[in-house]
Design a protein that fits this description.
The complex is a heterodimer.
Chain A lengths: L1 H29 L10 H5 L2 H14 L3 E5 H13 L7 H9 L10 H12 L3 E5 L16 E7 L2 H10 L2 E3 L14 E6 L6 E6 L5 E5 L6 E3 L2 E3 L13 H6 L8 E3 L11 E3 L1 E8 L6 H6 L4 E6 L6 H29 L4 H15 L2 H14 L18 H27 L2 H8 L4 H18 L2 H7 L5 H6 L8 H7 L3 H29 L14
Antiparallel strand pairs in A: 1-3, 2-3, 4-9, 5-6, 6-7, 7-8, 10-11, 12-13
Chain B lengths: L1 H10 L7 H5 L8 H11 L1 H23 L18 H8 L17 H36 L1 H15 L3 H12 L3 H10 L1 H17 L2 H8 L4 H37 L11 H8 L7 H29 L6
Classes of the chains: A alpha+beta, B mainly alpha.
Chain lengths: ~525, ~325
């Protein structure tokens, strides 16, 4: 069994890599890459060569290629020679201006050095000649550039992505030589009253702490780097986008770390558990507020994170669906061809056949006009009511599916020999249905349980769109229409991982529930 | 007494043993397809549904010819935007079927729009189902029969089946563009795989049945095995599969166009009509509900008809 599981997991990891690599190949190599500038204001403002240079900077930032430019090369070269005052050096100025003359730039020694160095590394050097008006004057943004570009291969991209997927914070993370003390230790946490794992030299100050927000225990030492959003959430980490609470800032009475122990209090929305290391020297005000260099923070918000919204709605809907769908399916099978069965079948056909879009809008109309529930998430006066319609819409869909399968499996089981035997033994119908048929019919449904729970993490596309729920359901779809390659790859990884895990868990659950099923031997018609 | 015996003897006469007659089995005449249609039309609702379906097909192919749909015909005239049926007929001068459901967000005719879009949906569903089903069944049959193919195809299947279908399709549409044919391509490039896997299992089950084993022992040639042993069993399975596939493609188109990664703007699409009208679905219901209703009508009719036909093609219901 362990061997089998190991094999399954290995194969899952293999397919995950294949899938992510394929999607990366497709989105990075097949699609025209300048789509990332479609919604970029900075790109619109830049003109001529500045725009070309900006494009390369962005391509490099978004992982299309690696690139260095001549100005950066000069900076490094002269900084080591003359220190921070290098800009005043005459040689530096001469070298810097050399590329502004398209006829003579190749004669410059530094330019030659730059080209030789980068070509040795396998980079391709590109010279962008100054853009001149007819008078010979350089146009706005028309300065010349000398670049060295290295296109990333799909293989190295995939390798980089997977090797940087998970990072662990260590005391060596902060490279500031000014930091003398480096430790990770348990300290009393003044903000929660409990104990917390506090680090120095790590990026975050609080590595493991408790607070009043779900899931109550939080950690900062393990980071999942799914990638960076390119267009939609410009430059933000995707893990951050889905995990960070949204809404309005909530202020509460608190103290800055330096004020602790005194009776000075401030009204602030700062989340002091989010402190990270800041390399810039503290300002005078910051000196009074913080005892150390951990001065960068984020705020407390009253809303939930995107993934929390989706998960709560999905989970409650799934629970309702199982609690209602299974008994209804059993009742339908028990009174086959009765009134309940006929109504139930009508409902099942409705849910199965009608596009989800149509019935969700129908539920929305009924919910808003008959029950007077809030329609759009943001407009809800009472926050909790905003969750009702999305949850009910999802539950009503899932109930249909569960009813269908439960009824089907129940009817299949009803003609089995063991049922006839139980009846011959004189068991009551109720007992037969409850103790004999239902558990056997459930076997088939058990397989889907992990998928329906883990699936809540991916959100619901149409429901969230219809009710404008700030959730993760539309992350992929909006990324696709907004050409956000980072999110597309991250979603691929996330969705595929979840579906792989749910299939394995489902199989394990199935084998546990039904001892006749063995995962290790081949099944199904194999000869 | 002897007279009686004599009489009996004159009533009966000996006949020769006829070996050909002896082989005949006396059973009621049975024709598969006649039984299928007998069972199918026994349900009166099917006749009604077929009539409705013919009306829908006729509507979606004839109406766009009579009232051509051009979403941008009134785009320059802002006064035509979001008109109720009465207002639209008022504005465009008198009763006309074209303005039966008023106008949409760009002054487009909703009535013409839903029929043109219905045609797109039906064509898309039929083309995709035809491609996926034929590739799926052929490869599935081969997959179920050949062990070598099984090994290779299972690995491919296990990788692709793990990817959420919606992710696969939307990424493909994103990459190859959003015209009608690229949409067909996106739906069919991996769509056949699930069907093939399904038929692989079915073929494997029949392949190992006793009667197939007996046929093989008797030296039945493979094409006869396929036509006499496999196909009669598979017909019902194929129809059942088709009954779920056809509405699925329509729902898929509606869904993808709604979220903005489906068909491009120049192809009339139910999903996009719904998406355009959704923001005002409480205030301008005439622009919103007709496309929803027509999408629901097509899928429900296809689904129910398909289910009933699938039931009828199962020989066990022919008793």
């Amino acid at each position: 069994m362990k061997r089998y599981l190991g094999k399954r997991i290995l194969f899952s990891i293999f397919s995950l890599i294949v899938v992510v690599a394929t999607v990366m190949l497709l989105v990075f190599s097949v699609i025209n890459r300048n789509v990332i500038f479609q919604m970029d204001d900075t790109w619109n403002k830049k003109s001529n060569n500045d725009r070309i240079f900006y494009e390369y900077t962005m391509y490099s930032k978004y992982g299309y290629l690696e690139f260095t430019d001549y100005a950066n090369f000069l900076k490094n070269k002269y900084e080591t020679l003359y220190g921070s005052e290098y800009t005043k050096n005459a040689d530096y100025k001469a070298d810097k201006d050399a590329i502004q003359d398209e006829n003579t730039y190749l004669e410059n020694a530094s330019v030659q050095e730059f080209i030789a160095e980068n070509e040795a590394k396998g980079y391709k050097t590109t010279y962008v000649a100054p853009a001149r008006a007819k008078s010979g004057k350089v146009k706005t943004g028309g300065n010349g550039y000398l670049l060295a570009v290295h296109e990333k291969s799909v293989f190295s991209r995939v390798w980089h992505y997977f090797t940087h997927l998970v990072t662990l914070e260590t005391t060596g993370d902060v490279t500031d030589p000014a930091l003398t003390e480096r430790y990770i230790r348990v300290e009393k946490d003044p903000y929660s009253g409990f104990y917390a794992l506090v680090g120095s030299g790590t990026t975050h100050k609080y590595l493991l702490y408790v607070d009043g927000r779900f899931p109550f225990i939080h950690q900062n030492f393990l980071h999942l780097n799914l990638g960076t959003s390119y267009t939609k959430y410009r430059g933000q980490e995707i893990t951050d986008v889905i995990h960070r609470p949204v809404g309005e800032q909530i202020k509460k009475r608190s103290q800055y770390p330096a004020q602790l122990g005194t009776d000075e209090y401030v009204e602030t929305a700062i989340d002091f558990h989010s402190l990270t290391y800041n390399y810039n020297k503290r300002t005078a005000t910051e000196e009074k507020q913080f005892p150390d260099q951990y001065t960068t923070y984020s705020y407390n918000f009253d809303g939930l994170a995107m993934i929390e919204n989706s998960f709560i709605i999905g989970l409650i809907a799934t629970l309702i669906a199982y609690l209602l769908g299974l008994p209804l399916g059993i009742a339908m099978a028990r009174h086959k061809d009765g009134l309940l069965d006929k109504i139930g079948n009508g409902y099942i056909i409705f849910i199965m056949a009608v596009p989800a879009l149509a019935y969700i809008f129908l539920f929305a109309t009924v919910g808003t006009t008959v029950f007077n529930l809030p329609y759009k998430f943001a407009n809800a006066q009472v926050k909790i009511l905003a969750y009702v319609l999305p949850t009910v819409s999802l539950a009503l869909r899932d109930i249909g599916g569960l009813m269908k399968w439960m009824r089907r499996y129940m009817i299949d089981q009803m003609n089995s020999d063991y049922v006839k035997f139980a009846r011959a033994e004189g068991l009551s119908e109720k007992e037969i249905y409850r103790k004999h048929i239902s558990p056997n019919a459930m076997i088939y449904l058990v397989h889907g349980i992990p998928a329906s729970i883990l699936g809540c993490l991916t959100g619901a596309i149409i429901t969230e769109r219809v009710y404008s729920v700030p959730g993760v359901g539309n992350l992929l779809t909006t990324a696709l229409s907004g050409h956000d390659n980072g999110i597309i790859v991250a979603c691929t990884l996330f969705y595929t991982t979840l579906s792989l895990i749910s299939v394995i868990l489902g199989d394990l659950l199935l084998a546990k529930k039904d001892p006749r099923i063995s995962l290790t031997t081949s099944k199904g018609g194999g000869r | 007494m002897s007279e009686n015996v004599k009489n009996v003897n004159s009533d009966f006469s000996f006949i020769d043993i006829n070996s050909i007659q002896a082989e005949k089995i006396t059973a009621p005449r049975y024709s598969y397809w006649a039984s299928v249609f007998r069972v199918f039309f026994r349900k009166k609702i099917n006749i009604l549904l077929i009539c409705l379906f013919i009306l829908l097909i006729a509507g979606s192919f004839i109406i766009p010819m009579l009232i051509p749909y051009n979403p941008y015909e009134n785009v320059t005239d802002a006064k035509t935007y979001n008109l109720s049926p009465a207002a639209a007929m008022d504005y465009f001068g008198g009763f006309s079927f074209k303005w039966l459901f008023g106008t949409g967000t760009q002054g487009n005719s909703i009535f013409a729009g839903i029929w043109a879009s219905a045609r797109t949906s039906l064509l898309l569903a039929v083309i995709c189902a035809a491609i996926n089903m034929s590739i799926g069944i052929i490869i599935g049959a081969f997959w179920g029969y050949s062990k070598k193919a099984d090994q290779i195809l299972l690995v491919i299947y296990n990788i692709i089946a793990n990817v959420p279908y919606i992710l696969l399709i939307s990424v493909l549409v994103y990459i190859i563009g959003s015209g009608f044919w690229s949409f067909v391509f996106a739906l069919t490039v991996t769509g056949w795989l699930g069907i093939a896997y399904f038929f692989r299992t079915q073929v494997m089950i029949i392949r190992d049945r006793e009667y197939s084993l007996a046929s093989r022992c008797l030296g039945t040639p493979i094409n006869r095995m396929i036509s006499k042993n496999m196909l009669p069993f598979l017909t019902s399975v194929i129809v059942t599969q088709l009954a779920t596939e056809l509405p699925m493609y329509i729902s898929m188109e509606v869904f993808l166009s709604y979220i903005g990664i489906g068909l491009s703007a120049d192809v009339p699409s139910l999903g996009r009509m719904i998406q355009e009208a959704q923001n005002a679905f409480l205030t301008f219901p005439w622009a919103f509900w007709p496309p929803v209703a027509i999408a629901a009508a097509i899928t429900i009719i296809l689904y129910v008809l398909g289910q009933h036909l699938a039931d009828a093609t199962d020989p066990r219901t022919h008793m």
